[in-house]
Every structure is written in C-alpha cells, then in structure tokens.
C-alpha cells in the first residue's frame, strides 16, 4: 500500500490557506522565547513543504513562513529588551536551555548581528537568540536585517528540502511495488542522520568559538 503517497495526497487536499496558516503559526511560536521547546515549527515546516509541488504553493509558503519567522524573532527580541537578564532565571530556560542561553549571549557579545543570522540554523539556540539579543543590548536596526536574512534563507532551505523529499517519496513508491515504504523509511533515516550530524558539528564549532575568544 502506498502509505506515504496517500499521506502526501491527503495533505495536498487540505485547504491551502489552512495548511499555510498552521505552518506559519508553528514557526512563529517556535521563534518566540521558550516556545521552540514545545512547538515543532521546523518539523511542521518540513511536512507542509512536501505539498509545495507547484511554484505558487512554494512561493506562498516561503513568504508566509519567512514573515512569521521574522515576526517571531522580533517579538522574542522585544521580550528580551523588556525583561533583560531575568529571562535566564525563568523555569523554562533553567530546565531546558541554560547552556544554549549562555552560548547565545556569549556569541552575541562577540559576533553581534552575525550571530543572529547563523543561530537561525541551530536548534534550541535559534529559539533563544532573539531574546538574548534584546537582553544583550544589540540595536534593533542591526538585529532586524540579520534576523530577516536568516529567516529567508532558513525557510527557503527547509521548504526546498521538504518539497524534494515529498517528490522523491512519490517517485520511489511509484517505481517499487514491494518494500517501497521500507526504502522510503531508510532514505528518510539517512537524510535525518546527516542533517542531525551537520547540526551537531555546527553547534560544536559554535561552542568552540565561544570558549576561545581568539578563534576566527
């Protein structure tokens, strides 16, 4: 049974405004301080992106997700400006993200707006960086361009990846009648493995640069 194809066709049958709106809401929630630990914005985006099989769908999803990410980052920044260092002592950050908060703050002090851009591609740190930027005193006129560039690049990358995976899954199941789902599962596992490995290496380099002030 072509389970993957059935799921993708079901997603594609959803009203596009509802699908795009829900995805944008998840991304907005993930980008706001603390909610990234709960709202699976990145996962939801990848799933929604499997339905972006036409140019209009792709462009609309990209525009909505990018705008929601920028708005979420801006709200996180505003929260950081309002509450300052006290955010680090909140229960949510103490439980889930103290190390990430410290890394984000340290890199922001050293790299400024560049840290905002690159943090967009790192899990957990992505959620905390906007608020940490507001707390650190980084000017909004420097924060916003970096957050915008990061949101546009990040959303384009993940939508392209999701669209490609969706199309690949359909083609594989159309070519393989027996064991197709297993093949799709293996390919998906391999893709996830390399994606997690890349993110782990990126976080390791970020930590190394944080600990070594002279590293470039």
Automatic annotation (TrEMBL):
Domain VTT: 57-163
Transmembrane segments: 18-39, 59-79, 143-163, 175-196
Assigned keywords, A-Z: Cell membrane, Membrane, Transmembrane, Transmembrane helix
Source organism, top-level taxon: Bacteria
InterPro entries: DedA-like, VTT_dom
Cellular localisation: Cell membrane
Membrane topology reported for the UniProt record: Multi-pass membrane protein
Pfam families: VTT_dom
Family: Belongs to the DedA family.
Protein name per UniProt: DedA family protein
Source species: Amycolatopsis tucumanensis
Native organism taxonomy: Bacteria, Bacillati, Actinomycetota, Actinomycetes, Pseudonocardiales
């Amino acid at each position: 049974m072509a389970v993957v194809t059935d799921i993708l066709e079901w997603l594609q049958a959803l009203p596009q405004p509802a699908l795009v709106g829900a995805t944008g809401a998840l991304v907005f929630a993930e980008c706001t301080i603390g909610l990234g630990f709960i709202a699976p914005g990145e996962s939801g985006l990848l799933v929604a992106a499997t339905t972006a099989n036409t140019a209009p769908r792709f462009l609309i999803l990209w525009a909505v997700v990018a705008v929601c990410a920028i708005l979420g980052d801006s709200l996180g920044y505003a929260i950081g400006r309002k509450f300052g260092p006290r955010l680090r002592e909140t229960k949510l950050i103490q439980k889930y993200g103290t190390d990430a908060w410290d890394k984000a703050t340290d890199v922001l002090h050293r790299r400024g707006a560049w840290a905002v851009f690159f943090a967009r591609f790192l899990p957990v740190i992505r959620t905390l960086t906007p608020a940490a930027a507001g707390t650190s005193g980084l000017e909004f006129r420097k924060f916003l361009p970096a957050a915008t560039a990061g949101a546009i690049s990040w959303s384009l990358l993940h939508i392209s990846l999701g669209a490609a995976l969706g199309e690949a899954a359909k083609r594989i199941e159309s070519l393989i009648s027996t064991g197709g789902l297993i093949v799709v599962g293996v390919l998906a596992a391999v893709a996830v493995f390399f994606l997690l490995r890349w993110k782990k290496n990126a976080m390791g380099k970020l930590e190394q640069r944080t600990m070594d002030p002279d590293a470039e």
